[in-house]
Specification:
Length: 342
Amino acid sequence: MTETTIRSVVVTGGAGFIGSTFARLLVERGYEQVRVFDKLTYAGNPANIDDLRSCPGFSFVQGDICNRDDVERACEGFDAIVNFAAETHVDRSLMDPGEFITTDVYGVFVLLEVVRERGLKRFVHVSTDEVYGQVSDGSWVETDPLAPRNPYSASKAGGELMLGAYVATHGVPALISRGSNTYGPYQYPEKFLPLAATNVLDGQPIPVYGDGLQVRDWLHADDHAAAIELLLCKGTVGEIYNIAGSNERRNIDIARIILDELDVPEDMLKHVTDRKGHDRRYSMDCTKITKLGWAPSVDFESGLRETIRWYRDHREWWEPLKSGEFGEYYRRNYGGREVVEA
Ligand code: NAD
Ligand code: TYD
């Protein structure tokens, strides 16, 4: 274990879902300077960090991780970068993969270059369980091979490999976290949970891909953020750490809890044409980060129900997101899908 004192952090992608949760955690924990650096793509939302703007030591800079000048300027005088910036939605990666390769691979390379040249103390790169690909039995450990099966996860794997190369060749002080499916407030409503909850709240059905028996391991955003903060201070350079909630659930069961919490009947659930190359199950072993002292603290069922109620009570947050660009995306992704037998 290597412990480093980090007082100032640039949170790239910090106007997104998990990045904003992480930036809030750093502010609450008294970091001297917390800077959100974000391109504000369709998924980046200034409203996610509104509450932080007046906090001492907090700043926001709009910029692109693929633009070296932007990154260099934003990191001047900071100890560390934690990188959440990415294109993140599998369905979009099936339709338009180009931007995924640009941000999730080239963007990570730019960040690594800046960390190397400017001599930053730490770079934590936030990755995903999806780089392992699907697993039918058992759980992946950090040394298992990468076998991504869609353009999103392949791009994330590419970014990870570049990081490994910079650690080995230039000794860049970088490490990787691999988180599982994350849920909580402020998640862009293209992802399954907020999409399903907000659809129901709008009187629309939940589109369940295929038989709905695919399994994801759900992790609350607060627990995900706390794990990454632990790695920032206590993680070992060059290492990879799995982070999961140990809440493996079938999609259909998540959908049923949403129906139950919002008190709507089962016929609001529609099985539709499956996602291409849909990974059946993700599962990771988290022994390694547990040994550093992390454990998830949010009880799954109550965390999930509380999250559903948050979307119910925050229409002003998600309604603007479901208009404009989102409508076009929704038609492209869901318009051609047929209702299928479960
Ligand atoms: P998100 O889509 O909500 O947010 C991504 C953020 O990155 C947005 O604010 C966006 O504006 C910003 N961004 C995109 N391209 C950028 C660029 N070129 N330069 C600067 N900013 C850019 O994503 P999220 O769900 O919060 O995920 C954050 C990270 O965590 C991602 O790296 C993702 O791969 C990883 N992750 C997510 C999950 C999950 O379930 N959501 C699980 C494991 C890992
Ligand atoms: P998603 O939130 O897109 O995350 P990921 O694909 O990264 O796991 O999807 C979670 C699960 O829900 C995944 O198995 C796909 C499924 N899903 C649906 O059944 N319907 C949908 O409309 C969406 C967006 C996802």
